[in-house]
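ok, trying the design again with the full structure, not the truncated one.
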């Protein structure tokens, strides 16, 4: 090992000390930021009327409400406190960024507005049609049996791009994307149209397709995740929990909870008839083992 001159040794010692102190300061700063998260209560940002995701009705909670309960239980049985706001323009700014709450339970992976946890489920847009009919076995939008069919699709969603690409938009019936679910439900309207024959097939985000197709004990619909349409635009999405960009320690805590309670989370989703898709595009039909 080569020897250092006295001046060089002094400079090296100072640089090393600054590096160590800088790391400690960074950890301390991160800890201070993490402390902005309320640890006495789980503060959740949610839409008050977005079943099956969230609801302010304690007698009819959404699956995100139930997952919030799992997180609160894992944090020591702390209470859950909600900040309710319609999930429309300004939702994150008026809730999470305003520090009125500390977590959004459902947030698509990759959106840079928030810091994403690991995903806790993956789902896909899905075809919905009557069981036992002429469309039984249709799994993709390029199927010739759809050529003359009236197709319901939520305007502005990825499947609408595919419909246009394969020449099916001419027969499509659009449904609104951005609405206040307290007063209007395009998904439920689409299912009513499907059951009445006003449309032949519907295309919905998987959780909506699975949940609303099975309501009131009805088992008359086939739900088929769209997994053969290629990657552009994507049909499947990983769903995470969203926190503020500064709350890195909080994100790590949530990742540990997701890992530990994945089986319980899966069971909640399955109870709500949510189609869960693994990374190999296979549908998950039973809760995975927690780690």
């Amino acid at each position: 090992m080569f020897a250092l001159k006295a001046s060089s040794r002094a400079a090296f010692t100072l640089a090393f000390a600054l590096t160590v102190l800088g790391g400690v300061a960074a950890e301390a700063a991160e800890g201070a930021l993490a402390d902005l998260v309320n640890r006495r209560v789980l503060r959740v940002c949610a839409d008050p009327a977005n079943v099956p995701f969230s609801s302010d009705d304690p007698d009819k909670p959404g699956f995100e409400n139930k997952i919030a309960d799992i997180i609160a239980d894992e944090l020591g049985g702390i209470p859950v406190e909600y900040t309710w706001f319609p999930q429309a323009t300004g939702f994150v700014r008026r809730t999470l960024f305003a520090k009125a709450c500390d977590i959004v339970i459902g947030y698509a992976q990759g959106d840079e507005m928030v810091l994403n946890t690991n995903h806790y489920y993956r789902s896909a847009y899905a075809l919905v049609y009557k069981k036992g009919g002429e469309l039984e076995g249709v799994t993709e939008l390029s199927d010739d049996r759809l050529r003359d069919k009236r197709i319901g699709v939520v305007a502005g969603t990825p499947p609408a791009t595919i419909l246009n690409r394969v020449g099916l938009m001419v027969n499509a019936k659009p449904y609104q994307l951005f609405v206040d679910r307290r007063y209007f439900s395009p998904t439920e309207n689409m299912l009513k149209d499907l059951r009445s024959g006003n449309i032949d097939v519907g295309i919905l985000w998987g959780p909506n397709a699975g949940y609303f197709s099975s309501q009131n004990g009805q088992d008359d619909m086939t739900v088929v995740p769209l997994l053969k349409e290629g990657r552009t635009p994507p049909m499947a999405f990983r769903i995470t929990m969203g926190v503020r960009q500064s709350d890195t320690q909080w994100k790590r805590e949530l990742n540990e909870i997701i890992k530990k309670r994945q089986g319980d989370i899966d069971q909640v989703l399955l109870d709500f008839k949510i189609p869960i898709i693994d990374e190999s595009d296979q549908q998950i039909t039973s809760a995975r083992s927690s780690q």
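Keeping the full-length input from now on. The chain has a mean pLDDT of 88.
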